[in-house]
Amino acid sequence: MADEVAAFLCGIELGRSRIEGHFDAGDVIEFPIDYLPWVELPAQIHLIDLTSKKDICEPIALATHDQAVALVGLGEIAIENLAIDQGLLRGVAINRTNGLIRPQMFARINGVLPRPISIDPPRLLDDGGAHFRFAAQLHPTDLVENGLTADIFLIGLDTPLASIAFQRADVDDMARRVVELEAQLEQTKTTAAFKISSLNAEIAARLDAMQERIDTFIEYAGSFIFDRIAAVDVPTQPGVEPLTPAQRQKVDAFLEIVRGSGGPNGKELVTAHLPPASESVALALQSMSFSYGWYDIEDADGRSFRWMAGDAIVANPQPSLPVRSVTIDVHAVFGAEQPMIRAAFDSRPARVAIGKASGSRPGWQLKLTPPRQQKSAECLAINLASLVSASPAQARTGHDNRILSIAVAGVTFHYAQAD
Question: Which of 80, 253, 265, 298 sits 20 to 30 Å CA-CA off 230?
């Protein structure tokens, strides 16, 4: 063979290459494919000899989107014609390399609030690939005094694909920051009011429970003292036998404990024992290590978890040991397809790896590790911040006024050594 060969997918040419040499049945020929247009799957790729107009091999089946990714990759998505029109954020996403990939995107309004984006069916481009029209709804509350900003994100990327700003004056960096600051201050005000209300209710409930326990103990101790350890005969109960020496010793020991002077042998009865150091510690959801930014424990789908606010702190249960890594089991995410978390060991940034949960359970697992040049890090706590967090009531997906980001089902600290 010494001819030009072209690849066709549903009659659309994918590329040409000259093939020369002697071949036997079963030999492998490498043929470059530069792009894939949008077509209905399943489809077949035909390699045609342009001289004889015949297939040089059996048609190659293209049945799934994963095969398309393996063939030409994900491609690059570009945003064009981004505009605000009649209460909608509209634009066109173009992928000239792989037209069989339908992107998953969301918009961040004023740098804070996430907003889902609806994407129309793809359309074929004349010069290869496909384009997708998309739109996101805007609400009157999104337009603050100094204007409105919107960033378009692709799931899995931290940097926006495109941005747009709307305001009365010319757009500059300072005005953009002012708009984002106003939105963040409004969200912080709502979050602070909710946290204060929740703390007041929690403190009141704990004080009531503590007072009930104190009253119960006082009642029981009084009944025990007056009914069981009376040192003198009671005239109304004639014939009561006096206490034996063993009973008298128990009573004296109890009185010593109440007075706080220690046990009958002069030793303190209450001592503090530190837990032994271990290579890994899995925190219980009710642990006090969940110190800030966590809501009460909830149950759903046979699993317990705690929702995290926009940012949170988890205390290190063994701060004297260097931390090798921290794994966080995520049950659900609000406002995004997957967790988008930044973390730090105290004030030092940490690397965050996101993966699917092991086993048959749905969800994700986050792994926090020190920077590349460090094998471990000493810290008192880990700081978590979600790039996407919002209230279901503000996002109009529910009546919950809490600021939610991720639902955590477990946190495990792994230490470099255990002395």
Answer: 265
Please choose, from the candidates 168, 167, 166, the residue with its C-alpha nearest in 3D space to the C-alpha of residue 150. Answer: 166
In percent, the amount of the chain with pLDDT more than 90 equals 16
374-399: average pLDDT: 85
Instruction: Kindly state the helix (H) or strand (E) to which residue 247 belongs, with its residue range.
Output: helix 245-259
d(CA 247, CA 130): 91
- The per-residue pLDDT for 202 is 80
Strands laid side by side in the 105-109 sheet: 113-116, 105-109, 148-154, 162-166
Residue type, 16: R
CATH tag, 280-415: 2.60.120
The secondary structure of 251-316 as a DSSP string is HHHHHHHHHTS--TTSS-S----PPPP-SEEEEPTT-TTEEEEEEEEEEETTEEEEEEEEEEEEE-
User: Count of CB atoms within 10 A of residue 269's CB?
Assistant: 11
Q: What is the mean pLDDT of residues 180-207?
A: 73
Take residue 351 and report the two structure tokens written for it. 């690397």
Q: Reduced to 3 states, what is the DSSP secondary structure of residue 69?
A: helix
Neighbours of 231 (CB within 10 A): 8
| Confidence bin at 267 (pLDDT 50/70/90) | very low
Question: Helix, strand, coil: what percent of the chain each, to 5?
Answer: 20, 40, 40
Domain ranges of the chain: 2-72, 77-170, 280-415
| 131 strand-pairing partners | 94, 123
Rg (CA), the chain: 34
Which of 341, 352, 344, 333 is CA-nearest to residue 390? 333
Q: So what's the architecture of 77-170 in CATH?
A: Sandwich (2.60)
- Look up residue 324 and give its two tokens: 């090798």
Provide the 10 A C-beta neighbour count for residue 18: 10
